[in-house]
Write the structure tokens for this entry.
Amino acid sequence: MDDKSKETPVLRKTFENELQQLKDEILLLGSMVEQSILESVEALKKRDIPAAERILELDKKVNAKRYAIENQVMIVIATQQPMAHDLRLLASIMEINGELERMGDYAKGIATINIRMGEQALLKPLIDIPRMAQKGVDMLHRALTAFINEDVEAARLIPAEDDEVDALYNQVYRELITLIIQDPTSIERANWLLWAAHNLERVADRVTNICERTIFIATGKIKDIRSSDDEAQKLKNSP
Amino acid sequence: MTHTIEKIKTQRIKVSEKLVYVLETKKLNIYYDDFRAISEVNMKIERNKVTAIIGPSGCGKSTLLRSFNRMNELVQGSRISGEVLFHGQNLYAPDVDPVEVRHRIGMVFQKPNPFPKSIYENIAWGARVHGFKGNMDELVEYSLRQAALWEEVKDILDHSGLALSGGQQQRLCIARALAVQPEVILMDEPASALDPISTLHIEDLIRELSNHYTILIVTHNMQQAARVSDFTAFFNMNGDRSGYLVEYDNTNQLFTMPKNKLTEDYITGRFG
Ligand SMILES: Nc1ncnc2c1ncn2[C@@H]1O[C@H](COP(=O)(O)OP(=O)(O)OP(=O)(O)O)[C@@H](O)[C@H]1O
Ligand SMILES: [Mg+2]
């Protein structure tokens, strides 16, 4: 007998593999969503309609993957009867899966704005909107890493960074309102951009939900870190 | 229907309607000769609830269960220290009659064990022994109804209990236990010898019975514990193979967010 065979055997190897596979799939879905957020903004910045159309195609893949993951989670629940930590992990994967898909929808929304704008030029060059996208994606990436590693400390810290995204959003908002006041005919073009910024602001909110799930896996408590639907609060902060 | 059935016997152990906890152990140790099978168990069993006992094989679940109605005394060399309280009174006090204890706290075993008699007699016999003087037909029907077996056997009451299916036999044994009108029913893996459908029947029955009885169930099936019980107690063995209580909590809590790492490992199937 070699030393290895004396170690405690890994019990439920199949189950462990299935859980690992689901985590991998979530990471993959996450990177698809990160890509579509960044590219949708890049395409808007460059007014690149074919690139925007590619985002719509990518979104279909995001949706398909979301349903594949959902299906796999249900199979694992049905066949492995998870309890305790395993159960919380699977419930969280289900939830994060949905959050990611909706984040993908925001990217799709930005691509759609781009396509709808047609021949119209951008009201102004995009500076803060790409920053919002960058920041949101960065938060998302770290939130998913924290989720995979069950790093509760990181998961508790990331949501506070939402303030930076909110600050950028408020800046974009003020700037666009100023432009509208100066030239009321710019209202439609300003509105396109406002919608794009709004979508990115929502991405960061949903990152918070992912962090809440990471904390839930470890503690069993769903803590509302900060209300992600606090639209009223957002409006109050706006000028 | 209970009102039609006369009280079987004057009971010496007083029932306290106010007590939430029907049974309680205090520093309970159970030995087989020198071997301590159960150590220092303190637990309270809530009235009209289902309490599940889970844990690895040999951790003393059956031993503990039997101590709740003094069945362990029938085993040579078995003794206890500490207390088992029933309605706040020590079940092992010298003036307590073990026969009355087993009448008030009934037991259903892993393997259905009907008597080799008619279905009717399976129910009537125990009640008669315990001095039941009322309408026996009524008692038989009442017990079989409570055990969700009446509809299936009402026309064959004179058939042998052994001619029933395993699941039906187990419900007959439950009916037999109910016929003496106990307050507590102890069940040791009552469904482990049954097919999945019969198992679900028994589980539904346990939920139903918990409206009127306090039920303790030992089960190796974690999903079953999760499905039927209100509270779950997880037992493990020490290095000396003596069983001890690791965690005892309401079932929802224990299966979703156990506090102890050992419980977590056990219920998630990663027990080394
Ligand atoms: N009659 C007996 N005489 C001596 N030792 C016994 C007796 N009955 C049980 N034991 C010992 O007491 C310990 C607990 O046994 P018990 O049957 O209560 O375990 P259990 O948890 O019900 O196990 P299982 O899940 O396999 O039914 C075991 O080590 C067992 O060998
Ligand atoms: Mg046993």
Notes: The pocket of magnesium ion (ligand 2) is lined by residues B 61-62, 188, 218 (CB under 6 Å). Confidence is low (pLDDT under 50) at residues 1-10 of chain B. The CA atoms of residues 56 and 236 of chain B lie 6 Å apart.
